[in-house]
Description:
Elements: H1 6-31, H2 36-46, H3 64-75, H4 84-105, E1 109-110, E2 113-114, H5 116-120, H6 122-141, H7 146-170, H8 183-208, H9 213-240, H10 243-246, H11 252-255, H12 261-267, H13 275-278, H14 285-294, H15 297-318, H16 323-337
Antiparallel strand pairs: 1-2
Amino acid sequence: MTALSSPVRESARHVLARCRELVQPDLRAAVGRLHPWVAEMAAYSFGWCEVGGAPTAAPGGKGVRQALAVLGAEAAGADGRAGVPAAVAVELVHAFSLLHDDIMDGDTTRRRRPAVWHAYGTGPAVLAGDALFALAVDTLAAAPEGPGAVRLLSAALADLVRGQADDLLFAARPWTGPERVTAREYAAMAEGKTGALLGCAAALGAALGGAPRDTVAALDRAGRHLGVAFQLVDDVLGIWGDPAVTGKPVGGDLRERKKTFPVLAALGSPAARRLPALLGSAEHAAEATALIEAAGGRTAALAEARVHTAAARELLTTAPLAAGAAAELTGLLDLLVDRVR
């Protein structure tokens, strides 16, 4: 990927910080309406407290989805506060999905801390996830244009579940042969698993900001392309990323036999004939990694990410968006996929 200049990167980070500052009071107030024990687990998942409730400033997420919602409202010509209910709702849904993801994947850590299920137990974590989902729906239902906003969120959630289901089922599919996972199936999975909620965030913000239906749809499509690009870059980092930066063990995706794009692309090359026999073996992870790169898997994944980034940028350029917000959305897009060196 082409490296961003420092001023562009800092500008995008400033946008994230500005949107977090706008959304955080409402997000904390929403979580505060939950049962105290459930609220503690939710606060822990956001990095606001330790187990037991002691305040802390643990690393949380970047706040990408909430920023997309605020910028979606601003792109429609409205004040950013119009998008805050959408930002709170998608942030709650994202947190809900991560709680359940960690349980499904058996991941014991999240952002270098024990995952909620590992810290509190599986049952409590499921309960906390359910509560966050219900709170997200309630938050949107109370907003202007609530019924339409809830329908947008419901459609995105249906796609997210479909993408998650495919991702889980892919693990049982063979690496080669007629039952292998295809690039088309991967793209549909990534759009649902990662892109649906990103697109929903921008679309919801625009809808609450009064944007016409075509503009809402364009922002949804742009966010979905961004999600696929983000997932492709995440796949690359899952194999070649620095654990100190990614928080993931080296070769973790390979040992878990995840059907990531670099592996799928490499398997199509004659140079990777030995690759299926190496995948899933901890002792052969380094050899498999080298073979995937030699067979062009890394290059193909980053090239595909550029295709989706360009498609998102084209949508942001041609849609009738307020110029300043459109530029900030584009800068945010570039920051999110500019993670590979």
